[in-house]
Amino acid sequence: MSRKPIDQQQPTECRQAIWEWIKARKAPFIASDLLYDIRLDASSINEYLTGLVNAGYLERTGNFRNITASTYTLINDTGHDAPRVRKDGTPVTQGRGREQMWQSMRRLKEFSVDELKFDASIGGVIVAESEAKSYCAAICMPATVILPYSAP
To answer: Does the global pTM surpass 0.90?
Structure first.
């Protein structure tokens, strides 16, 4: 089953829904409990749970051969946003550069492409000059756009 684009997903069809479900439980759970409430296939749920365990967000006890029969406990609650992790527990960095550029734009207010690139290149994420230029071009409306005035 291929993943739908994020703008086409329902609230119960993404990793954020899994994370919110786990946080709401506040108690140990088994993976099969998630299958009844979250509209994702079992392999997607198991892959995310494995990533959360490997990254240190969840602790797994019980039957290690059968992932769905294992008991999981939340041990590292990082807040509202679901951790972006791969199955091996490493963080997902895709999209971080744009996220950091947006934060830099909000903080700096006025900037050059070089200043934006430098300010957003933190935390192991390197923003290329071409990426900073294309991001600025995509979100900035040219100042020369003048809409015609029509009298009411």
So the answer is: no
